[in-house]
UniProtKB/TrEMBL annotation:
It comes from Antarcticibacterium arcticum. Pfam families: DUF4136. InterPro entries: DUF4136. Residues 22-171 form the DUF4136 domain. It comes from the Bacteria. This is DUF4136 domain-containing protein.
Length: 173
């Protein structure tokens, strides 16, 4: 009976670290007619230039798989931006001291943090209708991100996040 408990525990641990995505879109837009795009010309991503290039490369690959192609006269602009934030590590070691005597209790406890803070990247993808200059689709995805990882690991993390974000495009009405 211990084996299923370990499998469930492993599943929960792995599922908590996968990027989570949220989608929103304009219900009036017919997404099946949109087939050309261009990366938004004035990107302000809050990432370094190398990560910007990685994201653009991954977006070009994944959007081509969805039937979209780049164009000098696009129907949509694809914009992306990010924010990085840290959450305090919730793993602590508890230490307590207590005593009692004659129905009187006294206790002192405290937590010693184990490990450092977790760093998360929140990546937002915007699809903007060029003709109307209006946002028509948006995905926001966030996941663990290590700023000091190798270029291959960074690209792998970004690829997973973008794949998760683009699962919601085109939206199913």
């Amino acid at each position: 009976m211990k084996f299923p408990k370990y499998i469930i525990g492993l599943f929960l641990a792995v599922s908590c670290n996968t990027p989570q995505a949220v989608y929103d879109y304009d219900e009036k837009v017919n997404f099946t007619t949109l087939n050309t795009y261009q990366i938004y010309p004035d990107l302000a991503t809050n990432l370094n230039q190398l990560d910007d290039q990685r994201i653009i490369s991954i977006l070009n690959e994944k959007l081509a798989q969805k039937g979209l192609r780049t164009s000098e006269t696009p129907q949509i602009y694809v914009n992306f931006y990010s924010s990085i934030y840290e959450t305090p590590n919730r793993n602590t070691l508890g230490v307590g001291v207590g005593g009692s005597g004659r129905n009187v209790g006294v206790g002192v406890s405290g937590g010693i943090p184990l490990g450092g803070a977790d760093t998360y990247l929140r990546l937002t993808l915007d699809f903007i209708d060029v003709k109307n200059d209006a946002l028509i689709w948006q995905a926001e995805v966030e996941g663990l991100f290590n700023n000091s990882s190798t270029p291959q690991k960074r690209e792998e993390s970004l690829r997973v996040m973008i794949e998760k974000a683009l699962k919601g495009y085109p939206p199913k009405k």
